[in-house]
Amino acid sequence: MDGARCAVPADVRVGVKLWLSLDGKGVFGEGKWRLLDAIHRTGSLRAAADALGISYRKAWGDLRDAERALGVTFLERRRGGAEGGESRLSDTGRKWLTEYARFRTECKLYTERAFARWKERMGT
């Protein structure tokens, strides 16, 4: 190394997009995690989809696809009638919600520390 300083602007931040994949296909990430969180907060898939600004059909399809790919059941569903249906997180869904949040936090902290070390090596 020639000892040159390659200053990194002070306002540069690091960002990482995190997702889980099977056979190269994304099956769970930020979007599905946010959807599980919204279902947990609102008590229904329809209200969660509305809160996130996505269609009910997309929300339902995304979760169904993730459940099939991962072999888990995120939601307990009760078909509607005059009173409407109900969707709430299963025990597995709540575990995924909690543990993926923890995983995201750990990855973010590691990435921020690695970024700080990189900036130091860059001479900033």
Number of strand elements: 4
CATH superfamily: Winged helix-like DNA-binding domain superfamily/Winged helix DNA-binding domain
Helix count equals 4
Terminal CA distance = 16 Å
Q: What is the total domain count?
A: 1
CATH topology: Arc Repressor Mutant, subunit A
What does this structure look like?
- With 124 residues, this protein is of the alpha+beta class.
- The chain has a single domain, classed as Arc Repressor Mutant, subunit A, CATH 1.10.10.
- 55% of the residues lie in helices and 14% in strands.
- Strands 1-2 form a two-stranded antiparallel sheet. A two-stranded antiparallel ribbon has the order 3-4.
- β3 and β4 form a beta hairpin.
- α1 packs across α4.
- The chain is elongated, with a radius of gyration of 20 Å.
- 13% of the residues are buried.
Overview features:
single chain; about 120 residues; alpha+beta; Arc Repressor Mutant, subunit A; two-stranded antiparallel ribbon; about 55% helix
Please outline the helices and strands.
Layout (H helix, E strand, L loop, with lengths): L18 E4 L2 E5 H13 L2 H8 L3 H15 L4 E4 L7 E4 L1 H32 L2
Antiparallel strand pairs: 1-2, 3-4
Would you kindly provide a brief summary of this structure?
The protein has helices at residues 30-42, 45-52, 56-70, 91-122, and strands spanning 19-22, 25-29, 75-78, 86-89.
